[in-house]
Amino acid sequence: MSEAGPEPEPGGTPGGAQQMPAPTLILHVFTLAAQVGVALGETENPVTHQRETDLRAARFLIDTLAMLEEKTRGNRTSEEDEYLAGVLANLRMAFVRRNG
């Protein structure tokens, strides 16, 4: 170890931890959308390694994305507008299909 601190290991940061991406609205929306996929049973739960359905959680997360859409209106780029609108439309359709 040098006086400047620990040497970065593979992964780019001390201790070998992976560097985190810059926080963006699109990344946040993507993360919430991925959680909806898990709640709808479309994606394997990373903790249990099983597909589980929790429609209440899915609805909450979709409503959270809708709230973000409303609260950030007028402050998004056109790319963010399109991404958020598309994600919400797809998640709402997936919810309806699953809730049938």
Structure report:
- The protein is flat.
- The mean pLDDT is 88.
- It has helices at 25-39, 55-71, 78-99.
- α1 runs parallel beside α3 and α2 runs antiparallel to α3.
- It is an all-alpha fold and 100 residues long.
- It has one domain (25-99).
- It has three helices and no strands.
What are the defining features of this structure?
mainly alpha, 3 helices, 0% strand, flat
Mean pLDDT across all amino acids: 88
Radius of gyration from the alpha-carbon trace, in angstroms = 18 Å
Structural class: mainly alpha
Tell me roughly what share of residues is in helical segments: 40-55%
Total number of distinct structural domains: 1
Given as residue ranges, the uncertain stretches (5+ residues, pLDDT < 50) are: none
Question: How much beta, percentage-wise?
Answer: under 5%
Shape: flat
Largest beta-sheet characterization: none
Distance between termini? 59 Å
Order of helices and strands: HHH
Number of alpha- plus pi-helical segments: 3
Total number of β-strand segments?
Answer: 0
